[in-house]
Amino acid sequence: MAIRTLRHADTLSAPATAATLTEALALWYGPAFAEYTSDPWARTEADRLAELREVARERLLAARLDCGDSAAALIPEIEALVAENPLREKRWHLLTLALYRTNRQADARAALRRARQVLAEELGADPGPALRFLEAEVRAQSPSLDAPPFLPALLPLPEGEPTARAQATEQAGKAVPSLVPGDLVDRDWELVDLRDHLSAALGGHATLVFVEGPAGIGKSRLLAELRQLAEVEDVLILTARGNRREQDHGFGVVRQLLTARGNRREQDHGFGVVRQLLEQQVVERGGELLAGPAAPAAAVFNPTTAAGSRPDGFAIQHSLYWLIVNLTAGRPLVLAIDDLHWSDSGSLHFLAYLARRMEGLPVLIAATVRTGEPHDEEGLFAELASDPATRHIRPAPLSTDGVAALLRAGLGAAVDDGFATACHRTTAGNPHLLCRLLRALEDDGVEPTDDHVDRVTEIGSRAVSRVVLTRLAQMPAAAVAIVRAIAVFGDGAALPAVAALAGLTEDDAAAAIGPLVRAEVIRDQYPLSFAHRS
Question: What are the backbone dihedrals phi and psi of residue 192, each rounded to the nearest 5 degrees, phi first?
Answer without folding.
Answer: -60, -45
